[in-house]
Amino acid sequence: MTSETVSCPANVPADRVVEFDVYAPPGGESDYFAAWATLRGKHRLVWTSANGGHWIATDGELTRTIWKDAETFSNEALAVTPGLGEVMRFIPLQQDAPEHKPFRTTVMKGFGNNHVMAMEPVIRAVTRDLVAQLRPRGGCEFMQEFAEIVPIHVFLSLIGVPTEDRARLRPLGQQLTRPDGTMTVEQLRDAADDYLRPYVEERLASPGSDLFSRILAVPIEGRPWTFEEARRMCRNLLFGGLDTVVSMFGNISLHLARHPADQGLLRERPELMPQAADELMRRYPMVSVTRNVVRDIDLDGVTLKTGDLVYVNSSMHNLDPACFEDPLTVDFERNLSPVRHTTMGAGPHRCVGAGLARLEAIVFLDEWLSAIPAFRVREGTSPTYRAGNVGALTDLQLAWD
Ligand code: HEM
Question: Which residues are in coiled coils (predicted)?
Fold first, then answer.
């Protein structure tokens, strides 16, 4: 990612300028959340010159407001990384109203509750199988040996592709989660497209019952999907559903490894697992989005100009004491209904895979805690994070007796 810095535009008052690179926040390698918390302060909107220059919302209410106001804040840009949006052109993620709605409605149908629930045996089988392999070893590097594997397997099953393809897709997933600089974003997109192409063509020509077929079989305002639209949608699902879930698994495990009492509570009261999944997802949100301003607007005493970029990070909302009481504390019985957390976004682009991700989290808690004894972060190791639009743990050594 670039950290190209630019000079400060005229609409940015000097006291709003911070030094903050969203791809390398200060101390982010050892604690992603603490790094973001350094931005909380007297202003609700600050501006950084890193990555081409952009605003950052630093409090909960404003973060949520920007996320929901799709009329002022467009989704077209995708990221503060210059050029990334033009390369990926995701459908429905990078579409605005009115174009967005028919595509989103169609994708949502593909993720209907009945279809998601039908995935449970697949999710359970792959989770159980991996846990059974890891258990006798007394420990593992959780990210590579568990977190990166399950979402790929689930995705392949969803799109009706043999799960042996896992080996082919895994390096791509790894580049997405832990980019090592060997691939440009164009190469990553092309590799994903090359992988997806035969399936997209086949599902368009003769639909089956898999996720892509279900979505592509529904016309867009009375006409069939074009190949290019289909490809952009399938690309969105691939990129949207892998590293986010990897990141979620990492955070849940790290929390439990550091909080044996919470492991004990869930073992004693497994009926709390669905609520625990929701609360852990609230407490450890790692997705940030970029919006481009499409009309001048005054906010927090400054004017955001048309064309400005605003970066919105869900931890600024979920971990703001003004939005959630005692937000850093994990309480499995917390009432989450008054304010919906933004781990899955807010407004018209809220995650279409939210139900699937939640199911993966619940099954993970159930299978992992039933099979693995009390576990902890392996002595002498420290978890490391990678920041970015989807922050994630990159190394998490766990041990059990
Ligand atoms: C824990 C896991 C996940 C997290 C934290 C997450 C987070 C998000 C967030 C924050 C957004 C909103 C983006 C925005 O406002 O610009 C979003 C949208 C989206 N997500 Fe997820 N996601 C997860 C899992 C998944 C899965 C499993 C899939 C599919 C297989 C998926 C597919 C999508 C798609 C297609 C969109 C775009 C929706 C639209 O623009 O209408 N996500 N996700």
Answer: none
